[in-house]
Structures are given as C-alpha cells and as structure tokens.
Amino acid sequence: xxxxxxxxxxxxxxxxxxYGGQLIPPQLKAVMDDINSAYxxxxxxxxxxxxxxxxxxxxxxxxxxxxxxxxxxQRQGGARIVLKREDLNHTGAHxxxxxxxxxxxxxxxxxxxxLAETGAGQHGVALASACALVGIDCEIHMGEVDIxxxxxxxxxxxxxGCKLVPVTRGTRTLKDAVDSAFEEYLKDPVNFIYAxxxxxxxxxxxxxxxxxxxxxxxxxxxxCLTQHGxxxxxxxACVGGGSNAIGIFTEFLPDAAVQLVGVEPAGKGLDTPDHAxxxxxxxxxxxxxxxxxxxxxxxxxxxxxxxxxxGLDYPGVGPQHCYLKxxxxxxxxxxxxxxxxxxxxxxxRTEGIIPALESAHAVAYAMKVAKTMSPEQTILxxxxxxxDKDADFVAQHLGL
Length: 400
What we know:
This protein is of the alpha/beta class. The protein has helices spanning 26-42, 46-60, 70-76, 96-108, 122-134, 144-149, 151-159, 174-186, 205-213, 215-228, 243-249, 278-281, 319-326, 337-351, 357-370, 391-398, and strands at residues 15-16, 19-20, 66-68, 80-85, 113-118, 137-143, 163-167, 192-194, 234-238, 259-267, 283-287, 290-294, 330-336, 378-383.
C-alpha cells in the first residue's frame, strides 16, 4: 500500500499544510514544546505502549466490534450499513481512547492537575474516569446550557471525583467552556496540563489526539477485511472538532477507493445562523491557538454556533480536517437537527441501538446516501457514542 505524503503530517511546527501550528504566546509555546517532547519520548517506549494496550483491552474493552445493521439497511434499501461500535467502550464513546493516553502522559510528566472542557460531557466523563484510574486531579469546564442538557454525564463526572466548573459567559456552550478552561490552565501551565478533547488547539494536541484515536480505524479496517473480505466503499463519521472522524479516517487515507465523508451539524438549516457547519460556511482564520476554518464575523471573532448535539457546536474544526478538505481527500456534508432526530429514533427502533446525537448525524447521512448505492456496496459508520446522555432530552423534545 503506497504511503501518501499527508500521512507524515504534521510538520515539526505542527502544520497540516497551512492549518494548525502554535498561535500562542512565547511562554506558552515553551510549555507546548515540552508536552510534545515528552509525548514523542514516551510514546516510543515499550512500557507506555504495553500499559496503554492493556488498558484498551481490559479497561475500555477494545477492540470494539463492527456490526452489520441489517434491518436498518433493509429499511433504507441500497448499500449495507455497518457500524463501528465505539458506543460500547467503557464510558460510552470514543473519547476514552485519547483520555487514557493524555492521563498517562500527564502522570509521566509529573503534572498535578488535568484540565479540560466538555460539550456533550463524554470527554469529561472519559477524562474523569482516566484521572481516577491513574490518580491525578481533574477539573472540567462545561457550559451551563450543556450542563442542563446533558445531566446524566454531569452526575457521572461528579461521582468520578472531578471538579465541575459551570461556564456562564457568552453562549454558555462548548466554545466558552474552552475559553474558561484555557484561562485556568494559564494560571499554572507548568504543573497543570490541558487535556484537549478533540483534534484541535495548538500543536501537539491535534497530532496526539489523532494518534490515540487512530486505533478506531486500525481495528475497523482489519475487521472489514476479516469479516467481509473487502474494504468499505464509504466511511462516515460526524465532525465537530473532529476526533472520532480523524480516528477512523486515518487508517483509510491511503485507500483511494474508499470514500471518506465527515458530517457536520446543519442545525436548523444552513440558511439560518443556527448551525455549526464550519466546513460548509466557514472561512480561513484562527481559533484557540491554531489556524483552521472557522465560523467568524468580519472582525475575525468566532460566531455563535448551534447544534442539537452539544459535542458538535464548535466554531472551528481540526487542522488536519481542513487540509483534507482542501486536497479533496475527505468530503464534508451536513445534516439538520430534524434529520439527526429521525436517525436517532430509527436506529433505536430498527436495531435496538440508541446512538448519541452526535453520532446520529453520521447515521442520518448514511441512511440518506445508502439509497443511492447498490446492495453490493458497504457504508461503514463510526458510531462514536451511545445516547444514554441524550435520552431524556430527546424524549422531552419529541414529547415521548
């Protein structure tokens, strides 16, 4: 299999083409460079690799299976829809994959506290779990809107012993939670570590989170070949910051015959201001210490964004996704709230699998595009999380 140049990214400055980097003050750059050096050193060691592999197997429950959604496929007609079941991981989503890596790195570096933001709460729960496991303090910042919407995850974080900080500024959602957590981090970046929850932020975080999440694609590619004797024709994943998508896409990047599709939140419609479709409506800019496509006003300030899925309402996107869009290797589409809710209910009632609202965006796109494909073709969907956290909200929203 011929290796493509983009698999060697980022460069040593943290850039994927023109995206990424470290757009941060000099004193913080030194801290980020220390994190990068520690990561590059520890990731090569047999002890770190073995500890992480053991935790993936016996703590997370990896490998997560792939599952042919037969009844959903028959209902839609056309292509077979196969699900990569990240929802079965301990803590309920893909987030645990990089949280374990970040917590182990923090412990290795002698940090005293791990800080993070969370939107849907899955990153918060996963990080709180990982910090409890390795014995390090954890502080999670979460917008008030998301705290109200994702109550089950809020309770779990408190049970796991993390300090939960409600964010009351701005839109009181994910972007503001990032700002708040980053401000706390700047108070003592030597002893604290900011465990970013996606493939965003200054270098080395887009690289680190991608590397930890790439286990999803490695497993899925091997499972497709073993169980189906061939690679999927299309791989679909939701995109907010983009961690679950880059996790499953990375292993398939050299496979030119495999179409890769990232699905963003169109919210109430791309013709309204109530969406978070950064790739579709964003322009080149900078956010939270890195260059990326972003939804911004004429002054370059981030616009308020919206999605029914708390984990997707972010006004930027990971730098590698921006690069992959520009070179045409990944296609980025969008799905509305209504389409997401329909997919949420349809998957629940045809397969007995309640997906996270974030993941339901990917399911919705697969349901739509399957009809245009042949029964010999396969769509692999990264079911990045389960919908326990969303069940009460959806029931109330739909009047169930």
